[in-house]
Amino acid sequence: MRLILLGAPGAGKGTVAKLLTQIDGSVQISTGDILRGAVQAGTELGKQADAYMKAGDLVPDDLIMGIMETRLQEPDCAKGFLLDGFPRTIPQAEALKVLLNKLGIKLDVVANIEVPREEILNRLTTRRTCSNTSCQAIYNVRSNPPKVAGVCDKCGSPVIQRDDETDEAISKRLDTYFEKTAPLIEFYRQEGLLLVVDSPASEGVVDAIQQRIAAGA
Ligand code: ADP
Ligand code: ZN
User: Fold this and answer.
1) What is the pTM of this model?
2) Probe residue for ligand 1, chosen from 52, 59, 120 as the CB with the greatest number of ligand atoms within 8 Å
3) Residue 132 in 3-state DSSP?
4) How does residue 217 score in pLDDT terms, banded at 50, 70 and 90?
5) What average pLDDT score do residues 86-97 get?
6) Of all helices (H) and strands (E), which one includes residue 169?
7) For residue 166, pLDDT beyond 90
8) CATH number of the domain at 2-216, out of 3.40.50.300, 3.40.50.2300, 3.40.50.10150, 3.30.420.10?
9) Per DSSP, what are the bridge partners of residue 31?
10) Does residue 9's CB lie within 6 angstroms of at least one atom of ligand 1?
């Protein structure tokens, strides 16, 4: 499947993407994970992205498009891909449209995961992430804690609160989402690709997406 997952930070895009990859081997492409990996590895890209990310600001569109142009042409994308956290702005969506046309790729669906703002705030302040950049497993101190507090179940690395998950950075990220990313909902509605899902559980979101793809819409 070839799809875009839209939704505010904390809407569960990453969790839904992971579930979907298990269905047909499509790869999850998370620009956030790629950027955090680059920051930790100290690459040139990481150096350029770091300050924006810490502040809860978006990384400039040209850096992101450079990453995506390369990533979408890697062989593992042939089976399909789930874009998680990209596009984030109208210019990114427009550039993606041009890029996909050039590569001869057609999207199946753009799923917008709708979650009420209070629930988003709740989830983000209690979210914890594995510090190992090749793992990046996600936990929640209330609803899904690691078996041993502070230690990743999958790889044993420390489980931490991300730099951009302080209260201040979270509220900045939400403002940025409503201002820059929410307009993509209308953009993709006009493209005829939008599916709105408001299931509270990730499994429900996955079912709705599968049904839509099966219907061939
Ligand atoms: P979340 O969806 O939880 O906000 P991500 O992991 O998707 O977090 O992104 C973390 C940060 O990485 C963002 O706040 C932003 O600084 C940067 N980022 C990720 N994807 C993009 C993108 N497509 N465009 C611009 N910045 C991005
Ligand atoms: Zn881990």
Assistant:
1) 0.86
2) 59
3) coil
4) low
5) 98
6) helix 167-176
7) no
8) 3.40.50.300
9) none
10) yes
